[in-house]
Amino acid sequence: MLKKVVILFPIFVANILFSCGQPSKYFTHHGYTQGTIYKITYESPTGVSFDAEIKRLLIHFSNSLSTYIPNSLISRVNQNDPTVRADRYFKTVFQKSVEINQASGGAFDITIAPIVNFWGFGFTSDKPDTDQRKIDSLLQFVGMNKVRMEGDRIIKDDPGVMLDVNAIAKGYSVDVVGDFLAKKGCKNYMVDIGGEVLAKGYNASGRLWTIWVDRPADNALPGEACQALIQVQNKALATSGNYRRFFEIDGVKYAHSINVKTGYPAKTNLLSVTIIAFDCMTADAWATACMVSGLEKSIELIQANPELDALLIYSDEQGNYQVYITESLQKYTINCE
């Protein structure tokens, strides 16, 4: 989900750095990766642009984890290439996926690829279908217990098992770029890839970064309507929602958040989940896990993981928008209404 960064809150800091006699300088770099757009703003301590290096880094990342690149590492895993070996990107995502799968009671599961493709939301051109028999036949390939890592080898119990890391990889790519900028000496930056965000320090005006969260409305374009503005410092933010990616069959709406137990899109009054965490990979995965889990279960999961903050937007019985927000996040949030 795409969001735009806006500047609010009159918080000013002395923010001028010098290195080797050259003043620091802010740069903003735009591009396209993983099927979405990105915007990266950073203060270079030496006044030198890192845009070209960031672009190469994201290409290298996509060649590992993008299911839309036929010869990427993960595509070769899904094609059962016996020569494929996991790189550090794959290993990191896999380990985090196992962790959140267990913590979410199975709601987050990267083996969901066959079902996601079946519903037309994945990396194949499958036409959406609702045949229960077909869904049941695919569910036999779903489950994190059906795949494991042995060193740098990916072991699947059945060749029909396929992986889809799109619900975590985009957030991880944000962290990868953030780590790169930090190693370059950058203390102030904001990395936004497809709406998943990592913000450190301050923007060029000396203010904390503030993130726009869209009001969920069917087929709304990013930035059309604001639900909330969240002030972020040294944390990451990710949002998942069911109001953009969906289709209708015989008047029934099917959204892209799939319940791994039933094989059907999750039916819930939860419209949008925004998670704030210390890293974007964690925020991204938990946002998906909560969308699948529904409102009540999501609140339980968030309360059981105090390192997370959350803004949940849902509809009540009358169809009105309602908001659940964790207590520690309230003072950093402005409701746009």
| Content-based structural category | alpha+beta
Mean pLDDT: 86
- What multimeric state do the chains show? single chain
Low-confidence residue ranges:
1-20, 245-255
Radius of gyration from the CA trace? 20 Å
Care to count the β-strands? 18
Quick one: biggest sheet? 8 strands, antiparallel
Tell me the overall shape.
Answer: globular
Order of helices and strands: EEEEEHHHHHEEHEEEEEEEEHHEEHE
Helix content: 25-40%
How many angstroms separate the termini? Answer: 20 Å
What would a concise description of this structure say?
The protein has helices spanning 51-65, 73-78, 88-103, 113-118, 132-139, 166-183, 280-293, 295-303, 327-330; strands at 5-6, 18-19, 22-23, 25-33, 36-44, 147-150, 153-156, 189-193, 196-200, 209-214, 226-232, 235-241, 246-249, 252-255, 270-277, 309-315, 321-325, 333-335. The chain has 337 residues and is α+β, with helices and mostly antiparallel strands.
Structural overview:
The chain has nine helices and 18 strands. By secondary structure, it is an alpha+beta fold. Strand 13 and strand 14 form a beta hairpin. Helix 1 (51-65) runs antiparallel to helix 6 (166-183) and helix 7 (280-293) runs antiparallel to helix 8 (295-303). Mean pLDDT is 86; it is low at 1-20 and 245-255.
